[in-house]
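Supplementary Methods. Inverse-folding protocol.

Structures were first reduced to a discrete structure-token string of length 399. This string, shown here, constituted the complete conditioning input.
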């Protein structure tokens, strides 16, 4: 394998041109600041153990996927992600740095590769088997660099290529949602919205530890309503499903790094936390639960969990002196159709979708997984999908 690498390359030479992700990776590799924080705070043991496989050229991509799923089960605080990884029902698009650097058409090929995987995920989700999607960028050089503008721009570009949007600003909620579909009858469908979140290796042992990942950068989309409905007894969300979803969401926040034990030197840790429930506030959580005393409607955080690019992550400091506290981050969409009717429908109960919408969102897939035909995904069919994705990627790479 040969990679054409110019160590003198610098993005400042072309300030007006929108850079390809490959160029950003090279710029970070050769001009990014080393993360001095790692001299005194090595990566956590679980991250190091994952890196031993993810960055080892002796292991193929399937072995690396297995190692990453294992880490998600044990290392990520999100209970939805854990459950999906445990049952292998999270669809992962793995992009290794050497692949990105060898793509013939740069970001056009990278976008197509991500969209191939994105549509394959949606095809699995259509039959109820996958509610989560991850885009994992593996780069051994990236994990050694300090969080800053260069890393932030890599995260932003990866999100733009995944979401197929022109630009994503810092600290904003993008109005365009990611939708995943569920077949509820021969010609009936529901669609569920979700917004991605970004995770970086640099978060490990910093105040935003809960948004860490081994390997480099990871983007995840979890469709909570799809998750609950595809496992329900019928195609209708009941109080049982919404309460289960709320319980898991609250427990994810309660399990945040630093909640159980204060971490020395981290003022803004935990990064998100539950708040006490007022006596007058009703809750669907049962009285015997350890979550009963907390508000079911909102929680606090030092970053906004709906912001695709939280600028506060990309600072070299382990913690920062001053961070804005968001005091009304909402759980209400999960269980309250009156208090938040639009988001409750889009994110939990599902909105009606047409066959045309479904087909349009899966228009690059091969005929053997045509969304018009209901399928049961077997290991044999999984293999065909995997080979199709691998062949498509190979065609885009320079030899």
């Amino acid at each position: 394998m040969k990679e054409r690498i110019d160590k003198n390359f610098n993005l400042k030479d072309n300030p007006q041109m929108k850079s390809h992700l490959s160029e950003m990776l090279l710029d970070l590799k050769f001009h990014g600041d080393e993360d001095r924080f790692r001299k005194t705070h090595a990566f956590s043991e679980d991250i190091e153990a994952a890196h031993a496989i993810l960055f080892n050229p002796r292991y193929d991509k399937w072995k690396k996927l297995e190692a990453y799923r294992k880490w998600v089960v044990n290392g990520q605080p999100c209970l939805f992600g854990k459950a999906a990884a445990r049952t292998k029902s999270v669809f992962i698009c793995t992009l290794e740095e050497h692949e990105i650097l060898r793509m013939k058409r740069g970001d056009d090929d990278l976008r197509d590769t991500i969209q191939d995987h994105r549509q394959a995920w949606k095809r699995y989700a259509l039959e109820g088997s996958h509610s989560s999607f991850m885009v994992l960028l593996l780069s051994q050089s990236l994990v050694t660099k300090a969080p800053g503008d260069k890393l932030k721009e890599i995260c932003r570009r990866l999100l733009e290529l995944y979401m197929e949007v022109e630009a994503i600003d810092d600290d904003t909620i993008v109005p365009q949602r990611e939708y995943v579909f569920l077949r509820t009858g021969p010609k009936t469908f529901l669609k569920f919205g979700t917004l991605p979140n970004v995770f970086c290796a640099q978060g490990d042992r910093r105040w935003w530890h809960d948004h860490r990942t081994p390997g480099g950068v990871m983007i995840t989309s979890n469709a909570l309503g799809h998750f609950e409905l595809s496992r329900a007894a019928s195609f209708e969300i009941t109080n049982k499903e919404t309460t289960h979803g709320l319980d898991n969401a609250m427990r994810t926040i309660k399990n945040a790094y630093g909640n159980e034990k204060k971490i020395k030197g981290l003022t803004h840790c935990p990064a998100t936390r539950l708040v006490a429930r007022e006596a007058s506030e009703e809750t669907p959580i049962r009285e015997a639960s350890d979550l009963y005393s907390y508000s079911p409607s909102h929680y606090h955080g030092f970053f906004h969990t709906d912001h695709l690019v939280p600028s506060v992550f990309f600072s070299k400091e382990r913690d920062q002196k001053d961070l804005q506290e968001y005091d009304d981050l909402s759980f209400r969409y999960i269980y309250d159709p009156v208090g938040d009717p639009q988001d409750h429908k889009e994110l939990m109960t599902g909105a009606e979708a047409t066959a045309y919408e479904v087909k349009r969102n899966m228009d690059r897939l091969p005929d053997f997984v045509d969304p018009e035909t209901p399928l049961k995904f077997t290991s044999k069919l999984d293999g065909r999908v995997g080979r199709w994705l691998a062949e498509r990627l190979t065609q885009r790479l320079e030899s």
